[in-house]
Design a protein that fits this description.
The chain is an alpha+beta fold and 149 residues long. It has one domain (20-144): Ribosomal protein L14/L23 (Ribosomal Protein L14, Beta Barrel). The chain is 14% helix and 18% strand. The protein has three helices and five strands. It has helices spanning 6-11, 39-47, 139-144, and strands spanning 33-34, 52-57, 74-79, 82-90, 109-112. The protein has a five-stranded mixed beta sheet. A hairpin with a 2-residue loop joins strand 3 and strand 4. It is globular, with a radius of gyration of 18 Å. It starts with 5 loop residues before the first helix and ends in a 5-residue tail after the last helix. Keywords: Mitochondrion, Ribonucleoprotein, Ribosomal protein, Transit peptide.
């Protein structure tokens, strides 16, 4: 290992900052990281073109559709020229949006779904929040997760 000089340790800025801003909600064109072991997700992440949100399937106030998504919501993403549905399982949320006991992740994470609303991969590679277990649609995702926090 190369020894750092005293000057380098004190005055060279370290890369302890984030290149993406914190979000109040998930909206259109938000980019995601695929955290399951599906082939489509691996190809998209290796090609350098991560999927992005096209539509949020969520009801807002008064039963009207909204474009704002949060953790656990179903969304439509464009990935490698295809349209796929996905669930948001990690959210780089602003501190005012974090619920008590829900950990904040370093990136916006999704799990891809197939046509029958089942997870495309058979394993989730990152920890998922435990409160997602209360949603019956997300039961398969939480069971396939390596860790629940």
């Amino acid at each position: 290992l190369k020894m750092m000089t005293l000057f380098q340790r004190l005055f060279v800025p370290k890369r302890q900052f984030s290149t993406t801003a914190l979000l109040n909600w998930i909206h259109l064109k938000t980019r995601f990281r695929v955290v399951d072991n599906s082939d489509l997700g691996k190809q998209a992440m290796l090609s350098g073109k991560p999927p992005y949100c096209i539509r949020v399937y969520r009801q807002g106030r008064l039963g009207k559709a909204t474009n704002r998504g949060q953790l656990g919501d179903k969304i439509l993403v464009a990935i490698k020229g295809e349209l796929r549905r996905a669930y948001i399982v990690g959210w780089k949320a602003h501190h005012s949006q974090i619920r008590h006991g829900v950990p904040r992740s370093d990136s916006n994470n999704i799990i891809l779904l197939d046509a029958n609303e089942n997870p495309l991969g058979n394993k989730v590679l990152v920890p998922v929040p435990a409160w997602l277990q209360s949603n019956p649609d997300l039961a398969k995702i939480v069971q396939s997760a390596s860790k629940v926090v």
